């Protein structure tokens, strides 16, 4: 039976996850602007606070004071609901990611994960499949041709790449024999799955970029042709919610990828954890997950700064004619090898 | 029964019924589709509450996610939001009401004329609906229906591709299809 203490533990853990994600969103925007600026030989935001550290706060305050417009002829209910429907899946999708094993505080041991369900990967699939609606509805309800086109493109793209994304999950599941994220991390104790599943890793990387509408797959919001795509008519805090959802999805995708392929919270340098004073740095724990997420985010920003947007028909061809068959072959080969090796 | 349990099932059941009614009553095709999404998600949550997480998440992923997104995609693409007010087939409404009355009468009659007393459903083992268990059932006991379903879906996919293909010589669109790749068929 569920006790009150357990419920409080869940509530507090959920709050921590949401606060880390929203705080992370604010600083990922700064991270992206700084990295992009450096890649383009600029300085980037450096006026608000030391090293521009208060820039996200300034941006947030600015957006709060912006006027919110609702276009004439828009579907008011869906126009208001769409940003909410976009942000909620992004906030809840990381609930099944373990941050570590357990920690002892004030003589009581707490697990460093909210829940360890045996269908964690299916949960992630279900939540990502729901997250399409916000964007599609934002495009439709704006009563604007550019927004509607952006919504349509987003829908087509996310459906197409969800298949490859789902197939890339199968490799780690087969290797672990479980759909629990905690089991998947524990199975990578000796060797990370990126080395056993290179094809799956590349598939996940490409499909996840498409799933969160990042460059080079940012067709739904192609500025040059669609003005801004599905959020063209949004302003003020409603726009801020779309912005937030996009960056939180980036963090979430990095966390999922790091957990599935890069060993999650595991440290690659555990043999150094016996060192005095700095030993804890080399032990497994949440800080390793955050390091991996930061590197993954850097890669996403780097890709954005390097690659041009690919054309829409090429995007569909890549998704259906290359990535989907590759995913199927990867699943068959992995399964065959596991059966032959007697795993 | 526990008040919390009653509350959960009550709210979920109400959501299922209200969204189903909204689906039928709504005059906007997009809202109808969204009511159906809410309905699927609520049914998925019911499965979850009944201890079948695999079926619950499969329901949300496949029905509420993939299939309904395609419906909404088509509605948006065709601009077919507003449904016609007059029905092409007459008498459907009267028939529908008649069937509802018969169905309700059946339930009431069953309750009044039943020969065995109502009793609680025996609890199922915790592992009954685990993914491994469902996989074993699908690929052992129900292998033939599973394969037949897969074959039917494949046939439907091939049929859809064939129907949407143009007859006669296909003109290559500039930049999309290279001229030297012939369309087989």
From TrEMBL, chain A:
Biological process according to GO: aerobic respiration
Keywords: Cell membrane, Membrane, NAD, Quinone, Translocase, Transmembrane, Transmembrane helix, Ubiquinone
Descriptive protein name: NADH-quinone oxidoreductase subunit H
Bilayer disposition of the protein: Multi-pass membrane protein
Residues that span the membrane, as ranges: 12-30, 77-100, 120-140, 161-185, 191-210, 247-267, 287-307, 319-341
Location (main, coarse): membrane
Top-level class of the enzyme under EC nomenclature: translocase
One GO CC term on file: plasma membrane
Self-association and partners: NDH-1 is composed of 14 different subunits. Subunits NuoA, H, J, K, L, M, N constitute the membrane sector of the complex.
Domain of life: Bacteria
TrEMBL record, chain B:
Cellular compartments annotated: Cell membrane
Enzyme Commission number, as recorded: 7.1.1.-
Membrane-crossing segments per the record: 6-26, 33-56, 62-83, 95-113, 142-163
InterPro entries: NADH_UbQ/plastoQ_OxRdtase_su6, Nuo/plastoQ_OxRdtase_6_NuoJ
Protein name: NADH-quinone oxidoreductase subunit J
Summary of the function given for this chain in its UniProt record: NDH-1 shuttles electrons from NADH, via FMN and iron-sulfur (Fe-S) centers, to quinones in the respiratory chain. Couples the redox reaction to proton translocation (for every two electrons transferred, four hydrogen ions are translocated across the cytoplasmic membrane), and thus conserves the redox energy in a proton gradient.
UniProt organism field: Bellilinea caldifistulae
Protein family according to the UniProt entry: Belongs to the complex I subunit 6 family.
Keywords: Cell membrane, Membrane, NAD, Quinone, Transmembrane, Transmembrane helix
Catalytic activity: a quinone + NADH + 5 H(+)(in) = a quinol + NAD(+) + 4 H(+)(out)
One of the record's GO molecular function terms: quinone binding
GO cellular component: plasma membrane
Alphabetical list of Pfam families matching this protein: Oxidored_q3
UniProt topology in membrane: Multi-pass membrane protein
């Amino acid at each position: 039976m569920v006790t009150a203490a357990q419920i409080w533990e869940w509530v507090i853990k959920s709050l921590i996850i949401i606060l880390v994600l929203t705080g992370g969103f604010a600083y990922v925007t700064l991270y992206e602007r700084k990295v992009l600026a450096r890649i383009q030989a600029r300085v980037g935001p450096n006026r608000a606070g030391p090293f521009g550290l208060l820039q996200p706060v300034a941006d947030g305050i600015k957006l709060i004071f912006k006027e919110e417009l609702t276009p004439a002829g828009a579907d008011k209910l869906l126009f208001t609901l769409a940003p909410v429907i976009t942000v909620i899946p992004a906030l809840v999708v990381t609930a099944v990611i373990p941050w570590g094993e357990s920690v002892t505080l004030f003589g009581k041991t707490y697990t460093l994960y909210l829940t360890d369900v045996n269908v964690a990967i299916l949960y992630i699939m279900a939540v990502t499949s729901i997250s399409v609606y916000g964007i599609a509805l934002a495009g439709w309800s704006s009563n604007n041709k550019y927004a509607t086109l952006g919504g349509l493109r987003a829908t087509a793209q996310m459906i197409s790449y969800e298949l490859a994304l789902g197939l890339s999950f199968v490799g780690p599941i087969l290797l672990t024999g479980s759909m629990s994220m905690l089991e998947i991390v524990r199975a990578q104790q000796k060797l990370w799955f990126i080395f056993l599943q290179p094809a799956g890793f590349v598939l996940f990387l490409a499909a996840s970029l498409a799933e969160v509408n990042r460059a080079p797959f940012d067709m739904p919001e192609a500025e040059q042709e669609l003005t801004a795509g599905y959020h063209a008519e949004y302003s003020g805090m409603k726009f801020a919610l779309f912005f937030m959802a996009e960056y939180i999805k980036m963090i979430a995708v990095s966390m999922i990828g790091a957990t599935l392929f890069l060993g999650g919270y595991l440290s690659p340098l555990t043999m150094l954890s016996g060192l005095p004073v700095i030993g804890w740095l080399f032990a497994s724990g949440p800080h390793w997950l955050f390091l991996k997420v930061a590197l993954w985010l850097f890669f996403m920003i780097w890709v954005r700064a390097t690659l041009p947007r690919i054309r829409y028909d090429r995007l569909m061809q890549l998704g259906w004619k290359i990535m989907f068959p590759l995913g199927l072959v990867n699943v068959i080969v992995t399964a065959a090898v596991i059966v032959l090796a007697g795993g | 029964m526990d008040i919390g349990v009653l509350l959960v099932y009550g709210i979920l059941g109400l959501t299922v019924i209200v969204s189903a009614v909204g689906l039928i009553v709504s005059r906007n095709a997009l809202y109808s589709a969204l009511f159906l999404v809410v309905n699927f998600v609520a049914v998925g949550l019911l499965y979850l509450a009944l201890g079948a997480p695999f079926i619950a998440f499969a329901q949300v992923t496949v029905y509420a996610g993939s299939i309904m997104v395609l419906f909404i995609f088509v509605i948006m693409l065709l601009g077919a939001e507003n449904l016609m007010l007059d029905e092409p087939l007459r008498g459907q409404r009267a028939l529908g009401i008649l069937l509802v009355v018969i169905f309700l009468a059946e339930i009431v009659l069953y309750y009044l004329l039943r020969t065995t007393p109502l009793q609680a459903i025996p609890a199922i083992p915790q592992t009954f609906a685990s993914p491994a268990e469902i996989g074993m059932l699908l690929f052992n006991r129900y292998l033939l229906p599973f394969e037949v379903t897969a074959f039917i879906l494949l046939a439907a996919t091939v049929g859809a591709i064939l129907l949407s293909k143009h007859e006669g010589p296909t003109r290559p669109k500039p930049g999309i299809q290279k001229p030297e790749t012939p369309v087989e068929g």
